[in-house]
C-alpha cells in the first residue's frame, strides 16, 4: 500500500470523483467517500478496511460484491463509483487478491450445505459456524487465501444444533478410572445440553460426583473421593438444544468392566485310553467384556496345537486322539481380562494315559457340534464363525462346503487348522446350509449347519439435510430395512410426530422466517472449457444448465450473448434449467448462455452448439440372383458430414457378417468370390457415425442345385464338403463357450451335420475326441465345458457323401479347476498270484479330472470277518495288495481326488484275492456193481482255493487198475491217488527218522526236502519200495524244521509240509537238573518203587526159605539172558532203534525193505482220506495194525512193573 501526502492531489482526486459519471446523490455516500479518500491519503493500516466492509460496499472488479456479504441495502448501492476507484487504487487492495494455488475449488459448509467457490478470484463470506470454524464470526474465503474479516454478531447465521461427537453405543469403562461420557454439538446460538438416564431426566447438579464440561455436554463422573462405578450403569442419552431445534445423541449403554475370580474346584486326575478322544472344559467366569482364553502348562509353557490338539472358540481344549506323550504335562486354562489387564488361571488338569500295544485306527466322529446337523443365527454385518471338531485315529482332516454353491468369495477364511470357517461382514445372501466333512483313511462323516441371517435396522435411504427457501416445499425420505421388518418413526427436535408419515415426510411450506436468514447466491456450475453439444440437422436436442440457489433462482437462455430470452417457437425452457430445441438447423449453431438470478445476484454459464449433416447411403445394395461360383458385388456408397468419422459394417440375416477369405469389404461395397448356396440371404449395409446411422438391405438368391442349359438339365457332381474355417470363440464363461465357424462349400450335397471335436494338452495331447454334434443349418454352438481342461476345438462337416477334412484348430481356452464330481467305474479285485489281490478300475479322463494332480484313494478290507479299512493313494489305475489269504472276499472303494478336493463318497465293490491249487477231493470210492461197470464217487475238496471249474478222471488199464482224479479250476490242477499215505518224523537232538507209506509203483524215486527256520534248505533223493524211511543226520539241536516228501517228478504244495523240532543238546549253560521239578518227582517215584520192592522181598523172606525167582515164574526166561541169571533187568528205548526189516544205506540212511502190501491192505472198499496237496493221510486199518501188533509181541520190552508182579 502506498500513501498520498499532497493535499492538492487529494483535492483533485475528490473533485474528479464527484464530477464523474457515477452520479451519487446520497449524502451518506458522499460522507463515506471522504472517509475513504482520507484513509487512502494518510496510509492507514489495512486493518481499517474491515470497518468499510461492515457497511457492505461492493467492489466488483476486486472480486468482492454485495451478494457475498449475505445481505443488501438499497441505501448502499453503488453502480459505478467504486469500479473506477478500484482501478486507480489497485495496488492498495492487494489484501483481497490472490488465486488458488493448487487449482482445486475449496469447499465451505453453511447450514450443512456445500458451496463450491467459483473459479477466478471470487471470494465469499461464510459464518464461522461452518465446518472447522473455532468460534463465532465471519470468514472471508478466496481461493488459497481465507481471511477473517471481523466479528459481526449482526451477520451471524442461525443454525440448529448438530451432534459432532459422542461416545459409542456399547460403552464399557474401567472401574479404576473416572467415567467420561462424551457429547459435543455445534449450532448458532451455542446449544445447551441435558441428559437422560434410563429414559428419565438426569439431574447433573444434584450429584456431586457428576459434572459437565464447559461449552460441552460431556459428562465427567469422578470417583477419586469414593463411590461405586456400578451405581452409574445404565442407558444415557444427550440432548443439545437452541432456539432453532434439538439434536439427540445415540442411546449410550454404559457398563463397568468385570473380571470375577475363578470359582474354586477340585480337579481329579483324568484317566483315558490311548487313542481315545478327550475334551478339557474351561468354563471361565463370565466377564465384561468376555475374556481371552488360552491354555498353558503349570510351567507357563503354551500348549502346542495342531490338527490333533486344538482349542475351540468357546475355550475348551479338544484331543482328536490321546497319545502317550500327552501325559507328560498338565493343562491349565487361563483367562485374560482386557480392562483390568489381569490373567486368572484354573486349577490344572492331570492326564493318565492307559497305553496299549497298538492304537486301533477309528473312523471320525464329531466332538463339537454334536449330531449330524445344527443351526446358527448371525446378525447382518457381523462375522459368522462355524466350527467343527472331530475325533478319530488318525486325526481327521476338515473340509467345508456350502449347499448349492461355493463358499462366499473374498470374505471367507479358514482358521484353527481348517476346523473353523469365518465369513466376515455377513449379508442375507450368506444364509443357507454349510457342511463340514471330517475324513481320514478309515472313513468320513459330515455335519450340516443351517445358517440364518437376521438384521438390525439399517439404512436403505438415509434422510439428508434439506434447505428450503421461503415458500418452497420439500420432502425427507427415510427408508430402512431389517429382519424382522423395522418400524419407522419421525421426530422433530426429539419429539415424535403424530402422523402417518411412513417412509416419506413432506414438511409444511410455511417456513418460519428465522429459519432462512442465510440465503445463498444463485450458482451455476460452469466449466473452464465451454462444453460442446453436437447434433444432426433437423434432429431434436437439449442444452443442460445445472444450477443452485436459495432462494430458488430463475433461469434464462440467450444466444451469442445477446437478443431476447429463448423460450417459445423452436425452443422450450424447462424448470430444471434445460433448453430444448425441437429441430436443430444450421443457423442455430453458436454459443448459448444460461443466466441464473435471484434477489442476491446472478451467475451464468455457456454451451456451444454445432449442427452436423446427416449420414446417408446414396447407393445401397439391390436384390440379386446369381449362379453358384460367380463373383458378386454389393454396392454401398455413403455421404456424411466431413467432420465426423463414418464406419461401414455388413450384416447377413441381421447378424454380423464374418468376412473370411472369400469376402472383401471395399470402400464402396462388398465383393463375394465363389458364391455358394450358403451365401444366400439378407445383406444389410450399415453406415454409422457417433451421432447417427443409415442402413440399406438387399436379398441374394443363389442358383446352385443344377446346371441349366437351353435344352438339358445336368445334375451337378457331388463330393465331400469343404472343411469349415475361421473358428472363433466368444461368450467365454466358467463352464461354457460359444464356438462360431464359417461353413465350407457343400460340393452340391447339403451339409447334414457338424461334428465338434476337442483336444486337451494334459492327459492325451494330440488326441481328438468328439464333443458334440449339431445340425447342418447352424454355424454357431454353445459348448458345455469341464473344469481344468485346456480346450482346443475343430469342426468337421458331414453330407450324404461323407465327412470333410477337419478344420484348423481354434485358439485354446483354459477352464478353472474344481473337485471331482464322479468316482472311477469298473472297479474290480482279482488275484494274479495266490497271495495277492490286484485292484483295477477305469480311470477318469481329461474331462472328468476337474483339477491338477489327479489321484485315487484305494480302500479295502476283509468282508468276513469284517476287518478295518486299509487305504493307499495312487496315481495309476491299479493297485496290488500283497500277503492276502487265499481266495477270500474283500470290500473295495476307489475315490477320486485332486488339488481342489475329493469326489463324493464312492460305492463299495466286492473283489477276491488270488486262487491256489485246490486240495484233493475229500474221498474217492470205487464200487463195482458187476463185471462191466465201475462206479466212482468223490466229494468236493475241503479247500477249493478258488472256483472249481471241473474234474478230470484219468485211468490206465493194468493188472491192478489205477484211477486218478484231476480237479480243474482257475489256479491249476492237482492229481488224486496214487499218493503218499502218511508220513511222520521222530527227532532227537541231531538226527531224525522220517517214515512214510505210499501206493506208487515199484522203484518210485522220492525227494525228502527239509528247511530250517533260518531258511537253510536241503534235499535227499530216496528210491523206495513200499513203506519207506530215511534218517536225517547232522541236524541242529533245538531247531524247527519244515519237511516235504514227494515224488521226484512232482512239485509239492507250499502248504503240504509237516514240522518237527530237534531236542536241545546239553551245554554248560544248561540249568542244573537237580533243581528241576520233573527230576525231583521222578526220583520220588523211583524211591517209592524201591520201597515197595523191599517190602515185597521182606514179606517173601518172612514166609519161607530162599529160592530163586525163576522157580516161581511160569514163563521161562531165555537162558542167554545173563541179566536174568543174576536177577537184573535190561531196559531199552525202542523208539530210538531203527525199524525192523530195514537196512542201512551207504549214505547213512536206512532204507525200508520191499513190501508187497497192496492198497486193499490199507483201507476198506477203496475209501481213503486226502490232505491239502492230494496225499493220502489215512493210517493203516485195524487189520493191518492188528497184524503188526501180533508180529511185534515178542519184541516188546519187559517193564519194571511186570517184573514186580512176577516177583509177587
UniProtKB/TrEMBL annotation:
The keyword Glycosyltransferase does not apply. Residues 161-257, 263-350, 364-452, 457-494, 519-612, 614-701 form the Ig-like domain. One of its GO terms (molecular function) is cell-cell adhesion mediator activity. Its main location: membrane. Gene3D superfamilies: Immunoglobulins. Keywords: Cell adhesion, Cell membrane, Disulfide bond, Glycoprotein, Immunoglobulin domain, Membrane, Repeat, Signal, Transmembrane, Transmembrane helix. The gene is NFASC. It is a single-pass type I membrane protein. GO terms for biological process: axon guidance; brain development. Residues 806-817, 1139-1152 have a biased composition (Polar residues). The lineage of its organism: Eukaryota, Metazoa, Chordata, Craniata, Vertebrata. This is Neurofascin. It comes from Catharus ustulatus (Russet-backed thrush). Residues 806-828, 1108-1208 are annotated as: Disordered. Residues 723-818, 823-916 form the Fibronectin type-III domain. Coiled coil: none annotated.
